[in-house]
């Protein structure tokens, strides 16, 4: 069965797009043919994160509106294919168009949709096209509250498989009381935890500059998340204080 995963967040700045890109790479490394879709209309970033921004000719909106074929719009990285979002909003786009497009992409084992922050049009568009929802959150009270809102909205849209990914976790900061502990985040969001990704400021700096994603503690953590998404019984690893 094709995995269709909406990667969402209630608020911005949680590292969701970097998580989407890394997770897509890890699923591809496991042998899956992966379609990664940027759903952040007007504020796309996956083309920058993957270093192909100068080569984008068409977007998923062009495919959905019949302006080009899917094969003309995807950017190819071996088993990972990227489909970018349009840089400008289009009045003719409807929330169900991406859902229809994804249903026609049966050749892919995994579809990962990077939704914009919040629970607006892009969120609804991504969730409606998917059968799983991965909510990315940092362990702070403001973000935790937004997770609850995003989870409830995803459930209202018909998604029953909703999981939590805690990103940028630093145990030392949590022990000092600067951020929430893992158990507190789970209790407050009432959302099943899929994985924990440690803080790595070096990776953030590299992706902000458009440098290629490289092996790091983040990619290792997301390799475990990918295995869990594939149904493997991988123990949850909590990053230790460095």
Q: Please, could you describe this protein's structure?
A:
The protein has helices at residues 16-29, 46-49, 60-64, 70-73, 97-103, 121-128, 141-156, 171-175, 182-189, 201-208, 217-229; strands spanning 3-8, 34-38, 75-77, 80-83, 110-114, 132-137, 162-169, 192-198. It is an alpha/beta fold and 242 residues long. It has an 8-stranded mixed sheet, sandwiched between helices. Strand 3 (75-77) and strand 4 form a beta hairpin. Helix 1 (16-29) packs across helix 11. It starts with a strand and ends in a 13-residue tail after the last helix.
Summarize the structure.
This protein is α/β, with parallel strands linked by helices and 242 residues long. The chain has eleven helices and eight strands. It is globular, with a radius of gyration of 17 Å.
Features:
38% helix; alpha/beta; 11 helices; 242 residues
Multimer state: single chain
* Helix percent band: 25-40%
Structural class: alpha/beta
**How are the strands ordered across the major sheet?**
3-4-2-5-1-6-7-8
Main sheet characteristics: 8 strands, mixed
The 3D shape can be described as globular
Q: Uncertain regions: pLDDT < 50 for 5+ in a row?
A: 208-212
Number of strand segments? 8
Strand content: 15-25%
How large is the count of helical segments?
11
Indicate the radius of gyration in whole angstroms. Answer: 17 Å
Return the average pLDDT rounded to an integer: 90
């Amino acid at each position: 069965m094709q995995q269709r995963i909406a990667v969402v967040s209630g608020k911005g700045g949680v590292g969701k797009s970097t998580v989407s890109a890394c997770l897509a790479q890890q699923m591809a490394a496991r042998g899956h043919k992966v379609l990664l879709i940027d759903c952040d209309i007007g504020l796309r970033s996956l083309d920058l994160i993957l270093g192909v921004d100068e080569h984008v000719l068409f977007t998923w909106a062009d495919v959905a509106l019949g302006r080009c074929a899917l094969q003309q719009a995807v950017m190819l990285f071996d088993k990972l294919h990227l489909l970018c979002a349009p840089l400008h909003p289009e009045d003719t786009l409807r929330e169900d168009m991406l859902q229809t497009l994804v249903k026609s992409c049966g050749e892919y084992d995994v579809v990962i949709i990077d939704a914009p922050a919040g629970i607006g049009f892009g969120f609804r568009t991504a969730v409606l096209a998917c059968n799983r929802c991965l909510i990315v959150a940092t362990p702070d009270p403001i973000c935790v509250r937004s997770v609850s809102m995003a989870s409830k909205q995803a459930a209202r849209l018909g998604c029953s498989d909703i999981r939590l990914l805690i990103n940028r976790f630093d145990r030392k900061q949590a022990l000092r009381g600067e951020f929430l502990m893992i158990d507190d985040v789970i209790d407050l969001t009432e959302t099943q935890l899929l994985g924990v990704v440690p803080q790595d400021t070096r990776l953030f700096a590299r992706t902000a500059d458009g440098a290629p994603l490289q092996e790091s503690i983040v990619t290792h953590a997301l390799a475990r998340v990918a295995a869990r998404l594939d149904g493997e019984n991988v123990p949850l690893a909590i990053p230790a204080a460095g």
